Amino acid sequence: MSKNLFSPNVDLSKVDNLISGTLVPSKVWAVTVETEDGSVVKRGTLLTREKGEASYKPYADGDVVKAVLLLDVETDDPDESEAPAAFCGEFNQNRIEEVMGITLTPVAILDAAEDKKIFIAPMNPAPETF
């Protein structure tokens, strides 16, 4: 049975601080995401792809980052396994680490994304005003 990714509040804005800086993700297109366990892959997951493969998978240590997933995707449902991904831009390392449950070292970030126009750096949200 597929999971329901419907959001009744789709018209409301909720800032998750994934996109940071001033470099707007201008290269965005839909990709198919696959996982071995058919799980939901969350917005902010780094994606990679083997040469010659059509679908993308979540990043693992040592992979080359190809894109950043911009919406949640359910990989065990063929109708829900496609979502937009950004192929350039500036992204919040803190949010990516939270979503993926990993820690990205500076060397890992450079090795993974430096030639892809994907920039990843820690960004803390602006403090609340009183």
Description:
The chain has a single domain, classed as Head decoration protein D (Virus Head Decoration Protein, Chain: A, Beta Barrel), CATH 2.40.300. A hairpin with an 8-residue loop joins strand 3 (46-48) and strand 4. The chain contains two helices and nine strands, in the order ββββββββααβ. It is an alpha+beta fold.
Compile the SSE list and pairings:
Layout (H helix, E strand, L loop, with lengths): L27 E5 L7 E2 L4 E3 L8 E2 L8 E3 L3 E2 L7 E5 L2 E4 H8 L5 H8 L4 E4 L9
Give a short synopsis of this structure.
This protein is an alpha+beta fold and 130 residues long. Helices cover 12% and strands 23% of the residues. It has one domain: Virus Head Decoration Protein, Chain: A, CATH 2.40.300.
Give short descriptive properties of this protein:
2 helices, two-stranded antiparallel ribbon, 130 residues, 5-stranded antiparallel β-sheet, alpha+beta, single chain, Virus Head Decoration Protein, Chain: A
- For the largest sheet, list the strands in their spatial order: 1-7-5-3-4
CATH topology: Virus Head Decoration Protein, Chain: A
Beta-strand share of residues: 15-25%
Number of domains: 1
Q: What helical percentage do the residues reach? A: 10-25%
Uncertain stretches of 5 or more adjacent residues: none
What is the number of helical segments per DSSP (H or I, 4+ residues)? 2
Q: Care to count the β-strands?
A: 9
**CATH uppermost class:** Mainly Beta
Query: What is the N-to-C order of secondary-structure elements (H for helix, E for strand)?
Result: EEEEEEEEHHE
> What is the averaged pLDDT score?
84
